[in-house]
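Transcriptional regulator
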Amino acid sequence: MDREDGHDPGGDHDHGGDHGHADGESISRLLRAWRARVDARTVPELRGVSPRPGRRLSQRHVARLTGVSEGWYRALEAGRRHDFSEGFLLRVARALRLSEAETLTLFLAVSGRRPPETGRTPAAPPAPGLPAGVRTLLERQVGCPAYLSDGAWNIVAANALMGAWFPWVLRPRPNLMRWALLHPEAREQMLDWDDSCARVYLAMLRVAANSDPGNAELRALVAEILDADADCRRIWAEEHDVVEHRDGHVFRLCLPYHDHREIRVTSHVLLPIQRQDLRFVLITPVDED
């Protein structure tokens, strides 16, 4: 239950409890950043409150908006483990005006479950091997590049056109995040690399890291990328965006396959019903009409 009488004396009301963590995926850091975006003067429920709120939305304000004690909300923002209910987390999401991806990140980081509004059923445990039907569907995509990746963005399989557009998928143990964020050729081939590639992919890693904190492979991948690249470290520390997937994202490429002519493409992310632990991704050119 959400305790109404939880009092936390002596704490700093606007500082989380994870001072030792300056990383961009910490839920404490994200909650503070999300709260800082909201102008308390624009919140109808705070009108008439004494003292009159200024621009800064405080922890006390969020506690009032969500119907809990200030100490209870402070425990959430400090990253302390409690039995936070779905109702409370939904009220926090509304109070902080979180997007769908941000609400998802909050739920996964705090409770390990998805928010109830998504209406999605949990993925079935992965079946061993790659189903023949899924592989056949992938190989029959002859008009656009397509690939399958797992939860850590390892490329499980790719069709012929994907290998022609992006030869790196044919190398041993290809991984989308390592190539896109660490390989020099990615900065040449992914135009607007900083904004269209790095920020988006790091935001996706942030969701994944919160959704499965015990996944050693994911944690090692994040650590490897941040250790290896100063630009990624800067973006990770400065940004707090979260993105669940890249479905529908339009980006620009400059590939040897197209004689280095700029093309605009969009990605489509599907989940195979037989292997919902995998992503089925297709890349299609954007109609230039």
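thats it. Residues 27-118 form a domain with the 434 Repressor (Amino-terminal Domain) fold (CATH 1.10.260.40). Residues 2 and 42 are 26 Å apart (CA to CA). bye
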